[in-house]
Structure prediction request, 407 residues.
Amino acid sequence: MDDSRRRYPGGDLAAQVIGTVGIDNKGLLGIEQRLNDKLGGSDGEQRIVKDARGDPISLEQVKDMHPGSDMRLTLDASLQARTESVLSEVGAAYQPKGATAIAMNPNNGDILAMANWPEVNANHVDEAPAWARLNRAVGMTYEPGSTFKAITVAGALSEGAVRPTTQFRVGPQIQVADRVINEAHGTGGVFTVSDILARSSNVGAVRIGLRLGSMHFDKWVRRFGFGHYTDLPLPGESPGIVPHVQDYSGSSMGNLPIGQGLAVTPIQMMQGYAAIANGGILVKPRLVLNGEPAKGERVIPRRSASQLQKMLEGVLGPTGTAPEAAVPGYDLAGKTGTAEKPENGVYSKTKYVASFIGFAPARDAKLLIAVIVDEPKGGVYAGGQVAAPAFEKIASYALPYLGIAPK
Prediction:
């Protein structure tokens, strides 16, 4: 008896991305579900006329059969496997609620790896709980925290509101309406914009946001694609939550510039950082190769992108928040995030999202990687402690594997 059931030789490799089919070979998850019509094709239909004895005397083709299409994904199987392995180590060490890691070519949007933890076996997806089947890369919404400070600075640079050397007096806290924002690291001082990013200064980022102003801030957030779908062929993608400027409260500009009060997805953060890494072009993330060139549009001036690249190098320096992300021989740039999770109207002091987003080489980026860990446990929760080392392990493999020369 012929067996036409779909099999997945890779098992858990990219299972939440590729997806699976049901017993009728209809897509249930991932690309299998979203592109079911193209992959599955359609059956034909024939009309048979029989004589009185039941023998066929004529055959009419009513509807032609159309075979399913072959598809080639942008994923690199070896890099995908390595990324999943690193994420499994993160899962074992910190037992988080979940985690995701993405590797992408920032110049054309090709996604080279998209991993999720916990893993799911595509051949036995029914054995995994529903929450584990979620592709967190597109379906997880979270407050990005300090990784969003680069977007705030990008808008301020592009508007001419600041330069990298612009100085701000940063105190231990700042009050915006009824909200008091505390400095994250140390008690402050006189910081340049470059210092503010490298040190991940909360008060400094708020001061930059206030100088930019709410109208311009909202414009740049949306220009970077936040609040909109990336349109990857995956089910369950969220557009995130970005408040409209007319709905801002008096304290909104104390929250939003430091990545609080809005929700994003990991793939949206990748899209935004790709524009910084590639010189200012917003490119759509891509999972399926179709022979067409990547499409993009300029979102920030090349000069602003270059300035940001240089400033984000400082994050991996000795006074930055992520020296753990450094890869010997390579100049890298990136940003940490340690975001308190909102809970019952206040920010939790025990639940965090730890993240790191970085690219290499810093001035001629060919690889962009993000690691986002939801609620790491064990008393260690900072992005520089949890996510940055995982970034380093993925990048240390990916850079030489992809033939990217040290710089």
About this structure: The longest strand covers residues 346-360. The mean pLDDT is 90. The CA atoms of residues 190 and 383 lie 25 Å apart.
